[in-house]
Predict the structure.
Amino acid sequence: MDKYSILKKYFGYPSFRKGQELLIDSILNGRDVLGVMPTGAGKSICYQVPALLLPGITLVVSPLISLMKDQVQALNQAGVHAAYINSSLSESQISKALRLAAAGQYKIIYVAPERLEAYGFLQFALQADISMLTVDEAHCISQWGQDFRPSYLKIVQFIRQLDRRPVVSAFTATATSRVIEDIVCVLGLQEPQTLVAGFDRKNLYFAVETPKKKDRYVLDYIQAHADESGIIYCATRKNVDDLYEKLQAYGVAAARYHAGLGNEERRQSQEDFIYDKSPVMVATNAFGMGIDKSNVRYVIHYNMPQSMENYYQEAGRAGRDGERAECILLYSAQDIMINRFLLENKEPGDGQKFEEASGLRQRDEERLRTMSYYCMTSGCLRAYILRYFGETGMERCENCFNCSQEFDEQDVTDAAEKIIDGILEVRQRYGVNVIAGMLAGEGRAKLREYGVCTCQAYGSLKGMREAEIKALINQMLADGLLSATNDKYGILKVPRDAKRMLYEGHRVLWKKRKGASQPPNASDSPNSGSSKQRKSDILNSKGLELFERLRSLRTEIAKEENMPPYIIFSDRTLVDMCVKAPLEKEEMMQVSGVGEHKYARYGERFLQGIREYTNGVREKYYFGGPDGAVRGKKADFYLTPDQADRFPYAQKYLVTEIAEKLNSLRDADTTKKISGAELFRRMQAKGYASEIMSDGIHKKVVTQKGQAAGLFIGMRLSKKGTEYEDIYYNEDAQRMIVGYYSRAMSFT
Ligand code: ADP
């Protein structure tokens, strides 16, 4: 088998995504790899496909028990023999797993890093044929990452002990260059093929909102998105408990998660969420790593997180299945204070030296500041995120709250110059409160105490309100026209280039949301902004009905098998099923995400569901038109009953003529063409015709079944004028074919 057959057979996908192939080929050629790809990009396939092609075992080091369980469950569902070995198993279970592993039962084994040191495991590893060692969540090896795990350092030692060094592949979604350097260096990767994939998650919609009442906003949002699964992240345990109780009081099936709850309650909450029993999870950032739930449709941050890294990682738990999902941050000025409090009360790490601690504090302050600029910018939110992760070039994404807003643009260059002059005049010694107060000409005692009331700049922006000046300063910080020190004082500084930029005629434009007095605007509508659609939005009302049916069927199976629904089939696969509306096995196998093993387990039940819904008469279950074609893929060839009625039957046609007539009747914007060759293959597959070699040339012959159905051999003239045999289809045979593609009857 080759990599393509593996992808189709086990995972049900027709093709690899960008980048996956590069890493897979490198691994198969024995080269180490490092894949830096955002969540949902499809890292697992990059090591799971080669694992199935390599001769020996692949060990996957993974930091969390839940992550391993999920992956192994999904692999077993796909028909791959995989297991995990970690502390959730008893000693006897571990010995059994190792025995089976030694006997070659598993191609892929997930282990916690601590396991690599365990005597029993090492004994096994020294005997076993280990082809590859994969390090998942590889940023855990770096002290610069947020999730440093000292036990990850043991991986290198483990590799050294093996007789033969396996290929080492490492994957992470954390892209900062420091972390990447650490991974390569500490793990000892040998000239790794590195792939840093784009960080853009196109299916995610970003918004920053400043509702007056956050609870109300969340409740309305959840109610407007009932049936959908989402996570609400709060800054503190208390926030979680309060919101959780409110949601419960309103009858929302929510679960909660934070470090203050007992193990059992946390385990139960997580499970309820994963199994869709509680579609909403209210949690602190303790929740989420290792949560592979692919159908999270929204992530709301009730408070501003501490850094863009945190934000993108947490928000990125939405839409792992590639379907549209929303990431909404509810911002209020208080959030900065809460975060500062949390930072100040952070325990220093074990054995951390004072200098190290203060260096880290500075880094945290800087991160917090960048995060707050995200909440205040009036520019494209996606562009802001991507710039932060080092990707430049995007100006507007047209798929975030800011891009969907109308702004009044105002030239505030003069005011910006006055701000800069004021900061320079007081010799860059004060933070935003003093500077804004001074420029607005406020008479506060503090200002008098600092002596800024006698400055030339005092009151130079008297026409603006202090809050407006602060907002403009924030925008200048976000745009790099000002900077601030990385401490709790946030002293404003004027970067060297700023003054020059202004002298060179750089204009400062202040974009205010229409009708707003200061950005960002308060908005209480949870549904605002969302202009782009979900994949399931390509389904028309009948399609949605079918989708719901298939979803209930999935829930039913999930309950029977005690399995998270998304492991059975993803939402995306269900949508594709509605678009293709398969009525027999061959067609079902064309649905993205339906591999052989999954078909064998569930295919017939889903086919049955579709047959019942459609009554065997295939209709169009999605919106047509060029728009639909852009958003969704074209459906495989079929005709509506109306179109089929217009088929120009004749005494005899060649298969290519039938294909041509069929194609001219279809809706070309939404439906793929069918070729004569494809039609003939189907006739062959169903036993109406076959091809034989005779005197060194291919010859088509009609079977007995074919003759009965109206296929016959006739003579044709080639371009050169010689006669040869071909198959013709009489009117009965034509009706059979048209009937198949419109009413989806089978050829029997
Ligand atoms: P990551 O680990 O990078 O966050 P996953 O490995 O969980 O991402 O993959 C995200 C989703 O994309 C999964 O549902 C996975 O099955 C799907 N996927 C991965 N590769 C492909 C592919 N080549 N074609 C279609 N879907 C894919």
About this structure: Confidence is low (pLDDT under 50) at residues 515-533, 625-632, 744-748. The first strand starts at residue 33 and ends at 36. Residues 13, 16-17, 20, 37, 39-45, 292, 294, 320-322, 570 surround adenosine-5'-diphosphate (CB under 6 Å). The longest helix spans residues 354-376.
